[in-house]
């Protein structure tokens, strides 16, 4: 395992709409997160853009299709591409999602949640071990949103607080068994908590903060009484509140990434939101 270089500060997710501005301005961001699947099989022009971004900032790959908890074999193609990316850009770590997205060769365009079961814990641990043998860069898993619980979960306790505990217990057990670290998406924590009537603070209080390598912040939208994790708009107040709580618990400025995927504004507006994150993190640490 390559020893981790440290990643610090605040980053932005690369979206095609932002690339030209990223490459022409002097922007106060510390690193960029990129989706490797968007660059696989790209032509030389796109490859030059990626190289230029990588010359200006550290790049952290955040893939979508590992399907770490899924039944299909891990994609050797993705593993090969990720290994090449990690050799080329030497990221501190790479991340994907604690979920699955492929069954019988069919790739869902969704990150499906895993059942809270011993079998799921063992499956993730085994597959993470397979990945680790092939990619010498630490794997970090992100907590996802979900809109239904998967069949096969251990029986959920009755109270909302205990249910938040059950999910956090599963998450901690997976990280421990797989020796993966966590990408803590506080917007996802908030969306799940509201949709299932749970306490997001109770969830955060059980997250093993020593394993958190990165925090994601984002916006969401309400549709027909449900919060949907759309990554749109500025970060809402309750998500900032959870972010401050996470930073207070961590006792450090955890590398933080703003996700803005829908109606992406100018880079200047995106970076204003990143500056808000810097301010919230500073306030959180002052008030510990
Ligand atoms: Fe996220």
Keywords:
8-stranded parallel sheet, about 290 residues, binds fe (ii) ion, globular, alpha/beta, two-stranded antiparallel ribbon
Question: What is the number of helical segments per DSSP (H or I, 4+ residues)?
Answer: 9
Mean model confidence by pLDDT: 92
- Please summarize the sheet with the most strands: 8 strands, parallel
H/E series: EHEHEHEEEHEHEHHEEEHEH
Range of helix content: 40-55%
Order of strands across the biggest sheet?
A: 3-2-1-12-9-8-7-4
| Beta-strand segment tally | 12
Strand content: 15-25%
Task: Describe this protein's structure.
- It is a single chain.
- It contains nine helices and twelve strands.
- The chain has an eight-stranded parallel sheet.
- The longest helix is centred in the last third of the chain and has 20 residues, at 267-286.
- Helix 1 links the parallel strand 1 and strand 2.
- By secondary structure, the protein is α/β, with parallel strands linked by helices.
- The chain is globular.
- Helix 4 (118-132) packs parallel to helix 5.
- The protein has helices at residues 16-24, 44-56, 76-89, 118-132, 160-178, 186-196, 200-204, 237-250, 267-286; strands spanning 10-13, 31-34, 59-61, 94-97, 100-103, 106-112, 139-142, 181-185, 212-218, 221-223, 226-228, 256-259.
- Fe (ii) ion binds next to loops.
